[in-house]
User: Which sequence fits this backbone?
């Protein structure tokens, strides 16, 4: 089985650019990825593209071929949709087909245009990742769903808003100097606690921003890299996917995310590693509580113990397990369809040494990307490693 | 009226809300004793297609809750409002807790399932009353 290599990455600056179309954003990200990869566009055998709300934000369906055109790639293209995990779902399909020997060069990525909808419109669009009948019609928003999980966590295991505030403070700290991040300014615990409530117990600074942006990866087989002299020092060595019931009310647990447990177990087995081998992680912190739930399900903390990790300094850049060195969704931003492959792009740069926070992972060679859809009814985990480390 | 923004009736779901409004809420029980909410063709736990309507217990128990301040346009005039999940025997239901102060909210609090209307759109929704 050939190994999957990351030959090049491209990510647009995440932020508020309501006038830029999805095709414009993805064209820019993929152009950067090709420049980084030194791989010819004519060698690309397929585009796998993630997008969540294109019908609502741009009245645009059937985005696969449109984005192939935007990327200057004459190859079959398919859009993948798994809510906020859309581009990781695209990535997993590419990883599997490269390993199967079906294809040698695949362009993977995603984009989302969101801020043109405004806050209320984007909130409405994001809510379609929840169950329309049983959740959305009762007034459950996306922050509201995570707030239901946060309150359940507090009641079941303890912890409070201040613990969560440390997650936000940490991730903003990590984004300082990351020129791609939506927010690059540090904040303090008071800022988080005093911010306007969105859905209690979560406030504005517990929530990721609504962002526009795109990301792209040029993936190649190890065989192709060797035959063509492509420098691709980072490999995707593990892929896992887990699922759960769509609505929170139908799940066994209100404050746990077993879809992540299942995705992680598969990804670790696939890569032949355990959680102990992981040096740093990018997790899906759409809300502060989401980072806590992810760290527990990924096997880094016992259930009920993850909430104090940031406060204790264990997940900061100089901690034992740096988490979200990119700034995470919280500070880097969360253009939904772009997020999964942007996580892998950030990990690739961290491992290659060309990321502003690369020093924090010096000596480390194993990164992990965790990308969740909805309230973790979908989850994808990928292991990303430096080759020959 | 239907709560569907298109005006269409949603078989199973609207039947359930009608039954709750009439004080006759139910859940689906499969032959292996698993509970679920409609519409279902099969039990989500075991795939059994032998599903029967079983009366919901009168009293539910609040499991978790949130006070929402930033809403979608469909609830913009309802804010702030409380959404909650309550357990009724083997199933849980999501709804709005209409007549409780936020400081009274507590896990384990007994509630009854009823229906209410959105102040913004007039569409009906599932709701809880403190018991």
Assistant:
């Amino acid at each position: 089985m050939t190994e999957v290599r990351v030959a090049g990455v491209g990510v647009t600056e995440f932020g508020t650019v309501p006038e830029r179309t999805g095709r414009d954003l993805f064209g820019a990200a993929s152009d950067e990825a090709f420049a980084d990869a030194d791989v010819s566009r004519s060698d690309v055998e397929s585009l796998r593209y993630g997008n969540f709300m294109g019908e609502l934000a741009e009245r645009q369906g059937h985005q696969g071929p449109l984005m192939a055109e935007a990327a200057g790639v004459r190859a079959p293209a398919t859009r993948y949709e798994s809510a906020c995990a859309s581009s990781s779902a695209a990535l997993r399909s590419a990883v599997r087909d490269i390993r199967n020997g079906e294809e040698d060069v695949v362009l993977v990525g995603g984009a989302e245009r969101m801020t043109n909808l405004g806050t209320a419109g984007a909130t409405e669009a994001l809510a379609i990742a929840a169950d329309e009948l049983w959740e959305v019609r009762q007034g459950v928003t996306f922050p509201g769903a995570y707030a239901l999980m946060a309150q359940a966590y507090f009641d079941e295991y303890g912890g409070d808003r201040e613990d969560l505030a440390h997650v936000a403070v940490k991730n903003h700290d990590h984004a300082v100097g990351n020129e791609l991040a939506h927010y690059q300014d540090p904040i303090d615990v008071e800022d988080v606690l005093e911010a306007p409530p969105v859905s209690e117990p979560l406030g504005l600074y517990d929530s990721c921003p609504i962002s526009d942006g795109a990301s792209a990866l040029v993936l190649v087989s190890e065989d192709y890299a060797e035959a063509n002299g492509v420098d691709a020092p980072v490999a995707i060595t593990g892929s896992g996917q887990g699922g759960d019931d769509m609505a929170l009310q139908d799940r066994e647990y209100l404050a746990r995310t077993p879809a992540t447990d299942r995705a992680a177990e598969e990804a670790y087995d696939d890569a032949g590693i355990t959680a102990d081998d992981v040096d740093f992680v990018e997790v899906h912190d759409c809300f502060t509580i989401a980072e806590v739930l992810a760290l527990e399900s990924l096997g880094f903390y016992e259930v009920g113990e993850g909430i104090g990790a940031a406060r204790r300094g264990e997940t900061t850049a100089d901690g034992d397990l740096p988490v979200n060195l990119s700034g995470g969704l919280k500070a880097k931003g969360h253009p939904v369809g772009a997020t999964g492959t942007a996580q892998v792009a950030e990990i690739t740069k961290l491992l290659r040494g060309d990321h502003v926070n690369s020093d924090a992972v010096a000596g480390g060679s194993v990164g992990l990307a965790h990308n969740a859809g909805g309230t973790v009814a979908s989850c994808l985990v990928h292991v990303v490693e430096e080759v020959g480390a | 009226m239907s709560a569907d923004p298109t005006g269409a009736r949603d078989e199973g779901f609207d039947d359930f809300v009608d039954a709750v409004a009439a004080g006759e809420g139910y859940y689906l029980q499969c032959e292996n004793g698993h509970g679920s909410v409609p519409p279902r063709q099969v039990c989500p736990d075991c795939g059994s297609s032998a599903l029967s309507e079983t009366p919901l217990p009168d009293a539910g128990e609040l499991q978790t809750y949130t006070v929402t301040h930033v809403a979608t346009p469909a609830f913009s005039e309802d804010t702030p409002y409380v959404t909650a999940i309550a357990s009724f025997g083997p199933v849980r239901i999501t709804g709005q807790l209409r007549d409780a102060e936020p400081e009274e909210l507590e896990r384990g609090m007994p509630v009854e399932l009823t229906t209410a209307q959105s102040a913004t759109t007039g569409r009906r929704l599932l709701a809880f009353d403190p018991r």
Remarks:
- The radius of gyration of chain B is 15 Å.
- Chain B touches chain A at residues 3, 10, 13, 36-37, 44, 63-76, 78, 81, 83-85, 91-96, 102, 107, 118, 123, 125-126 (CB under 8 Å).
- Chain B has a mean pLDDT of 94.
- Residues 7 and 107 of chain B are 35 Å apart (CA to CA).
